[in-house]
Amino acid sequence: MKKSNIFAYIELTKLVEELRVSNTSGHLKQKLKSQSAYFNIIEPRYFSDSLIGEWEQILSIIKQRGVKVNEEGKVVSNAVSNTIEQFSDRECEVLVDKVYSLYDQVKREFQ
């Protein structure tokens, strides 16, 4: 079985450590927004065949609202930031739980 790429493991580790630092509801949305780049740089192809689907599901959730554009049609917020901004605290918690779960599975692949 092909393991996930070490890049995915390292970057997910950084993301999870940052999210665990402030896991209170009000701060979770801000923490997700400040860490949103991880959702753009960790590509599904970095995961093992058994975990690609889970990462793709997380990405579809976190990009579901699409980019935010202004009156002139210029992008003012990428899909990840725009979606997180519209999430409720509960939606943020559910998303973070999915990230934690995936991270635990990737971590097991490397142990």
Shape: globular
Order of helices and strands: HHHHEEHH
Proportion of residues in extended strands: under 5%
Q: What kind of sheet is the major sheet?
A: 2 strands, antiparallel
Brief digest:
With 111 residues, this protein is mainly α. It is built from six helices and two strands, in the order ααααββαα. The mean pLDDT is 91.
Keywords for this entry:
111 residues; 2 strands
Characterization of the model:
Helix content is 66%, strand content 5%. It is mainly α. Strands 1-2 form a two-stranded antiparallel ribbon. The longest helix has 21 residues, at 89-109. The relative contact order is 0.21.
Task: Give the topology.
Elements: H1 6-21, H2 25-34, H3 38-41, H4 49-62, E1 68-69, E2 75-77, H5 79-86, H6 89-109
Antiparallel strand pairs: 1-2
Helix pairs in contact: 1-6, 2-6, 4-6
